[in-house]
Amino acid sequence: MAPQPQHTLLDIRNLHLRLPSPKGELHLLNDISLTLERGRTLGIVGESGAGKSMLIRAIMGLASRKARISGEIRFDGDTITGMPEARRRRLLGARVGVVFQNPTASLNAFERVGPQVSEAARVHRGISAEEARELAISLLERVGIPDAASCHDRYPHEFSGGMKQRIMIASALAIEPDLLIADEATTALDVTVQKEILDLLQILQAETGMGMIQVTHNLGVVAGRTDEVAVMYGGRLVETGPTRAVFEAPGHQYTQRLIAAVPSLQAPIDQELVSIPGQPPDRLIGIRACPFAPRCAAATPLCSETMPVLAPAGDDGHKAACHHPPRVPAQTLEGAR
Amino acid sequence: MTAPLLHVRNLSVTFPRGRQSFKAVDDVSIDLGPTEALGLVGESGSGKTTIGRAVLRLLPFAERNVSGEIDFHGRPLTAAKAAELKAFRAQAQMVFQDPVSSFNPRRRIEEIVAEGLRIQGVGKTEIAERVDTALAEVGMSRSMVEGRRPHQFSGGQCQRIAIARALALRPEMLVCDEPVASLDVSVQARVLNLLRDMRRARSLAMIFISHDLAVVRSICDRIAVLYMGRIVEIGDVRQIFERPAHPYTRTLLDAVPVPDARAKVVPSPERAVRASRLEEEGGCAFRTRCPFAQDICARVRPELATTPLGQQAACHFPLPAAAVPA
């Protein structure tokens, strides 16, 4: 593909987020730099506690008020870090849609689904009640809810988990967002429903040209569905680059393990599964060495002494922060704990 | 096959839904050998959890809504009285999806692991021994857990504690209901490897419930695929993965997210149309989603029959081996 002039939608530079706690200041996000072009999809991947959701909260201005944030986040050219809260909310609320993991918790159980779908458009666009109803019905149709007109007046409990997640997507689309963030949006769903929802998001993105961020713990969900991927560990970005390059030749031991940990349909049936021993760091205070070193099979004394920095690991901006980048493809990893 | 440990014949479970009723499990028959692991796979609402609970007699109002036979060691479980049932509880244990909510948050871990043993009337010294052994088997130790409570452990650790709690009773059968569905992928593998090792070391019989075929693949000897309360395919793990006969099994296999970025996924705009569960309809329940459905599928309900590939499938048009890419 010939390089096209691109338009940066989201530009995060040297983002740090620290949160005071009784045990000391927690370094929840450390020096995160990422960009997302309009019309592209970025996967943010990592285990629980890696900082994925905290990063999304920092972008959306939803982090705790006690959090100390430094660095810069620009959305479509506007610097949103340090922007007065009301202005930031107006800007992002009108242009960014978010779909969270648990649709049952995100939907108001006592309100009919139609008004919930059109809510953001009523708040940010000031449309009339009639327009809102029409909009909600057309959005419900668009996300594949059968008989959308009658569903408009039904309550959330009348829908299955997959249907509720479709309703959440419809409400995120109400503002015709420039950016859609799916935060573990399919994690709680059956694999068949997960596939349908991922397909739907991909189709909607192609139709609208919006940018999209997929946050997940499962690399299988971003493979083949994202343009770029960012792998987080211990509040840091440990690898980032074009999705295909990262999967074919991971530049970080952690990424390679995460890829190998996805249960395969190809591996010999009686082969032991690849797991990652130990626990992710939980204290996140003053880590000065590679945060993955205590769990890494390839770690040497260097890893527990010096913090590896993000350095080129391939073409097209593929970078990784690993002292001992893997040399073998992930597929050939032997089962190990 | 040697005499089965668990023998289930024509199991049906019905739940009332207002004036109508809802058949969660519809005429299911399975046998489980003494050291066999059987996977029950299907989507939400397929009846897999209800079967798991029925064979452990954990369903509310069990007598009223359950029909069919469930024999354990050749004795009818449905007729078991309190004392018999208590003995059965030591022989058959369960591991739930969400370990944290299956624990009492105010109990200490060592009490949680010992609870079943206390109920069974095991002596104090023996409880201590068996708790230590069970913790060691799941890669933990008393010093790691002593005095601590569930919230101080991660999801993966809690699931290992839940497995230790079940193993402490030295059961013959373990029912695992989505034991890794709420865990990170990186932690899933550890729990799956542990269950697989336990199975072998303890010669355990196991029923493993999951919506994800990839998860049961490394653990089970046989797989039963369920759709809307009925078994649509059952066979050896290799048959199911290498030559699935039922189009629904194929659908489940295609939905597994694989970590392969060589080709872009081509999204399909189709949304599966799931048939209503309340209206009793004839024909094959999967026909509304099936690419191969013909007129007969709406009229005649297919029964389980042995396919040329060796497994059993309930399908008028089972997939030929050639249709499945190797």
Automatic annotation (TrEMBL), chain A:
InterPro entries: AAA+_ATPase, ABC_Ni/Peptide_Import, ABC_transporter-like_ATP-bd, ABC_transporter-like_CS, Oligopep_ABC_C, P-loop_NTPase. One of its GO terms (biological process) is transmembrane transport. It is found in: Cell inner membrane. It comes from the Bacteria. Signal peptide: none annotated. Residues 10-259 form the ABC transporter domain. Pfam families: ABC_tran (PF00005), oligo_HPY (PF08352). GO terms for molecular function: ATP binding; ATP hydrolysis activity. One of its GO terms (cellular component) is plasma membrane. SMART domains: AAA. It is a peripheral membrane protein. Keywords: ATP-binding, Cell membrane, Membrane, Nucleotide-binding, Transport. Belongs to the ABC transporter superfamily. This is ABC transporter ATP-binding protein. The lineage of its organism: Bacteria, Pseudomonadati, Pseudomonadota, Alphaproteobacteria, Rhodobacterales.
From TrEMBL, chain B:
It is found in: Cell inner membrane. CDD domains: ABC_NikE_OppD_transporters. This is ABC transporter ATP-binding protein. Residues 6-253 form the ABC transporter domain. GO terms for molecular function: ATP binding; ATP hydrolysis activity. GO terms for biological process: peptide transport; transmembrane transport. It holds the Pfam family oligo_HPY. It comes from the Bacteria. The lineage of its organism: Bacteria, Pseudomonadati, Pseudomonadota, Alphaproteobacteria, Rhodobacterales. Gene3D superfamilies: P-loop containing nucleotide triphosphate hydrolases. InterPro entries: AAA+_ATPase, ABC_transp_ATP-bind, ABC_transporter-like_ATP-bd, ABC_transporter-like_CS, Oligopep_ABC_C, P-loop_NTPase. Transmembrane segments: none annotated. SMART domains: AAA (SM00382). The keyword ATP-binding applies. It is a peripheral membrane protein. It comes from Alloyangia mangrovi.
